[in-house]
Amino acid sequence: HRPAEFYTGLLNNQPLGFYAPATLIKDAQRHGLKIRPVSVAHSDWSCKVEADQVVRLGFCLSQGLQREHIGRMLAERSRAAFSSVWDFRNRTRFDRDELRNLARAGALNDLAGHRRNALWLVEGAFHQNDLFSGQETATDSPLQAMAPAERLEADFATMRLTTGPHPMAYLRKMLGDTVWPSADLVHAANGSRLKVAGLAICRQRPGTAKGVVFISLEDETGIANVIVYPQLFERRRLVITQESFLLVEGILQTRSGTIHIRAETVERLPTFPLETAASHDFE
After folding, report:
1. Could you tell me the pLDDT band of residue 210, with boundaries at 50, 70 and 90?
2. Is the pTM of this model over 0.85?
3. Which of 111, 128, 134, 159 is deepest in the core (most CB within 10 A)?
4. What angle do CA 45, 50, 56 make, to 5 degrees?
């Protein structure tokens, strides 16, 4: 088995199959792969295997970037490495919005150190070109680097995914010990009442299931399978279909080695204002 090549192939052929890139990346990380973020110094358009068990994300997963502009940037990089944000801007001619997206995504970190400094230098690169006819004068930002939660929000705004901790990792302390990580459900007793929470990555209502809805909730440890019967679904339809993060209380059931939660309550889980990828719903 060659897991790095396997996941790289899945990421490069999106949309493909059941899971969005954000979920594929977390699954790859749980299987021991190192996923490196997009970088103007190292990434290509497509994701690639960079070393054994190491995948470098490509610009194909980024939001708000034109492939033609990325192609021009890669051609310029092949001639000479970029030495600064000013040099990058001057040689690639990305527009300001594209450069801001690259900065927010962390793709300029190899040139700027951190995202806020990159954003500062992007604005400076446009300003100084106007004032000083293309001479580099920008200085580093006095701003602190983004906090982890801010980087998470920026990742989802620009990529719809993160190579850092799963959003649920930040919420776990707030939830307390009463909410089970999905990976720990194997240790729970059949028939026990418990709570799970996570990002709804899939909602299915098969025609043969008599109105039963199946939800996959992803947290930082894996995926929990939830069953919602028709009466509860009708009562909580808006929450179940519109909210990205859900908190579910129900009865754990184990059948033929498969674990699922028969939901009795479904609530919205307050979290960050993340621009998550669309879930795989009702197909």
Report:
1. confident
2. yes
3. 159
4. 45
